[in-house]
Please model this.
Amino acid sequence: MKPLFLITLGLALLAALLISEGPFFSESDDPLDRSVEATRASDRTGRRASASLTGNRDPTAPVTVARLLEIEKESGMLSYSYLRNAITRLTPAQLLDLLTEFNLTYPEMSHFTTKTALIESLIQRDPYRALIYSYENPDLTGQYNFQMLLPVQVGENDLQRVADFLKNAPTNPYHENYVIQLAERWGGTDPAAALAWAKEFDDPSATIDRIYQSWARKDPKAVARLLPSQPDSPLRQTMVRAVFFGMANQDPNAAISWIDSLPGRERIPTSISAISGLSRMHPSKAAELFDQTISNESLTKEQQKSLTYSPRLIAAEWSETDPKATAQWINELPEGKGRDAATSSLVKNVVKIDPDSAFEWAETIVDPMVRKEATRQVIYDWGLSDPEAAREALDRSKLTDAQRARLHYRIR
Model:
């Protein structure tokens, strides 16, 4: 009986142990099980830490300057996210009170992370109050990028109220920045109201320019319809450029064709100013516009000069996505500074993927100084991956003996 009793007692103790402590073996032999358990443990630890730092265990606990300083100190490099969590339940008025107290107690750039969290929360919760606060505290405006964040956060229903405030606002170093950015926002949603507001300023030209640019990005045809009634002026030039780029965003072919509808005196200047911007948006179309413009017999010498380095901009962008098409286009360009500059741009982008072709293109550059720089870059980059091939190419290059010797020294 005694052995049976002992066995029964042992089984009972084992069952109790399993219930209270979990599996008899504390770690699974399966690596996946161990990984899952480790992740769960980490999550539990993180949640406990976050709750402790942000005060989430007691939602009614007041958020004070002292408490924010504790969070800042305890959370270290993670302080920004913890601080944002701690102040999510605060009203705009409470955020303003904390920010004011912080700014008085810790002026200038001290406790930058905590102030940033308070400011960005205020901007997101009540951008209009944040705007007023930025005028009352102009030093903070520059330090914490009020002027960059506010226009993005202002709701459509608040644009008129913000516009009215800015019209009569006190002096602020960032006032013009606010006005311009509001003009961009408003010009895209209600250009008529934005223009009426802008015309009340003493010098509205820059503001009106931004309104038309924003309007044309959204509805270029609407701005184009206004052009016949616009006299020749800087504003008209701004509107023409805005219409072109607004159209180019939607249909680059239509934008290029639209230039032909302009009065003769505007076509070439518009094309020249459009090429650089179009090269970043649609480089192949910029190349078409360049070819069309450079062949115009009405070009003045000054206009020809202004087009000299347009091929460099086009090739720099185009060769990143289609080096073969770029090379074909360059091959059709006449010899000169433009072709040399374009070839140099092609070489810079091709050398990483095809150093042999990059070297051959560098050798076609006519200007000795431009060719030397292009060849030097090819040989140096090529020497990092294939020093023997780089040395062989260097020996047959058009460089002088002294230039070759210096580059040989740099190849590892």
Q: What stands out?
A: The chain has 26 helices and no strands.
